[in-house]
Amino acid sequence: MNAQLLDGNAVAAATRAKVAAELVEAGSPAVCLTTVLVGEDPPSQRYVRMKGRDATEIGMASRHIDVPASASQDQVAEVVGALANDPSVHGILVQLPLPGHLDTDAIIDLIPSAKDVDGLTRSSLGTLVRGAPGLVPCTPLGVIRLLEHYGLDVAGKRAIVIGRSMLVGLPLSLLLARKGIDATVTIAHSRTADLRDRCREADLVVAAVGSARMVQRDWVKPGAIVMDVGISRETHVDGTTKLVGDVDFDAVGEVAGWLTPMPGGTGAMTRACLMENTLLAARLQGIL
Ligand SMILES: NC(=O)c1ccc[n+]([C@@H]2O[C@H](COP(=O)([O-])OP(=O)(O)OC[C@H]3O[C@@H](n4cnc5c(N)ncnc54)[C@H](OP(=O)(O)O)[C@@H]3O)[C@@H](O)[C@H]2O)c1
């Protein structure tokens, strides 16, 4: 392994400690993050539990609302609308994906922009496109925070983001191209031709696809920064399963200059940035 590790666990712990210290400095105001889960998907249940635990560990209040998978659009909208109007709730996170019969965009857009800790409402995404300050999606923010922490300056350099989702790829591409970060960004997707060659040209590769070990050693320019967002579950012949990223960690580690582990990379940062966003949401609402 030649690459230096971008240690998401360590940077996430420092981020949480900073948020906790800022809360104490502000006189420990009551800041509340509320998560909403529609249905009983076990990974989603685990994610919301971890988010609630993170919040309480740093001195925030956390609430969770379970909604049955069979709930109608109106029923889910009523839950989110009530939280939107509740002054004791400062951050609202609707765990995605929602069951297929629900209109996700319509539900997300019920969250007031100041409480939109996932940064996914039409208003938050519009603010991001404008380059104005505001709440931005947690995973892209986590990638930026990792680059900042390690002093990795990508200004004027070539970056490629593989994936163009509203949750990760697109907002991350916008952030990397933003004035002040100033990368020259290529957005790749399932119809991108010559993806390996496009990656080999890049100084920064971020893979956000969900395709196990897609990014191979010969996709990476020597010394490049490689950041793995994708998560896939691999099943072995003996029936055991393992989470793997989009990057072939061992092989790419031989050529990359910097590399995120999986787990302990971008996922850890996503959770920490949710705490950072909840603090910012409380500030936007005048709580501190
Ligand atoms: N680490 C974290 O904290 C974190 C957070 C969120 C998500 N994730 C993981 O990150 C991955 C992506 O999440 P997402 O929500 O962005 O997923 P998504 O909405 O399914 O988007 C996947 C993207 O990958 C592109 N893609 C698919 N096959 C490709 C190929 N062969 N070559 C190039 N691009 C390809 C798709 O292109 P098209 O647009 O052309 O279909 C799409 O833009 C998932 O594994 C998810 O579990 C991790």
For the termini, the CA-CA separation is 45 Å
> What characteristic shape results from the CA principal axes?
globular
Mean pLDDT: 97
| Helical residue percent band | 25-40%
Q: Largest sheet, if any?
A: 6 strands, parallel
Structural class of the helices, strands and pairings? alpha/beta
Alpha carbon gyration radius? 19 Å
Question: What bound compounds does this protein have?
Answer: NADP nicotinamide-adenine-dinucleotide phosphate
The low-confidence runs, each spanning 5 or more residues with pLDDT under 50, are none
Reading the helices and strands in chain order gives EHEHEHEHHHEHEHEEEEHEH
Main-sheet strand order equals: 1-11-8-7-5-6
User: What is the strand content?
Assistant: 15-25%
- Total count of strands: 11
Number of helices: 10
Question: Describe it for me?
Answer:
By secondary structure, the chain is an alpha/beta fold. Helices cover 39% and strands 17% of the residues. The protein is built from ten helices and eleven strands. The strands form three sheets. Strands 1-11-8-7-5-6 form a six-stranded parallel sheet. Helix 6 (138-149) crosses helix 10. The longest helix has 19 residues, at 266-284. It is globular. The model has no long low-confidence stretch (mean pLDDT 97).
